[in-house]
Amino acid sequence: MAAATLLQQYIPDLTPQRLETLLTENRNEGNIPELSRKLTRSECAQILGVSINSVNRYIKNGRLKAVHISPRLLRIDPESVKDLLTNGIPEDEVIIPKCCRKAGDQ
């Protein structure tokens, strides 16, 4: 598995079998919680397992749909959160922290 090879520089004891086991154990089986009301940025970040800055970025690039209640207050459409959980983020939009980048990467 090429992914395990790429990740080994960050997690030296990772084997292809271990990666496959971890992915299987943590797979999203479509059991997305029922969301009936609009969400705050904090709630959305917690559900998605990302930072509030990432939620803001997803709103800005259209991945999440938000309703502005006032200039600084907004709520996020739960359907767009479900779509993001189901479809994920394209690989080219994933931001890798500086500490985890290879030399020469930006």
Automatic annotation (TrEMBL):
Name all Helix-turn-helix domain ranges.
Answer: 39-87
Superkingdom per UniProt: Bacteria
- One Pfam family assigned to this protein is HTH_17
Write the protein's name.
Answer: Helix-turn-helix domain-containing protein
What organism does the record attribute this protein to?
Victivallis lenta
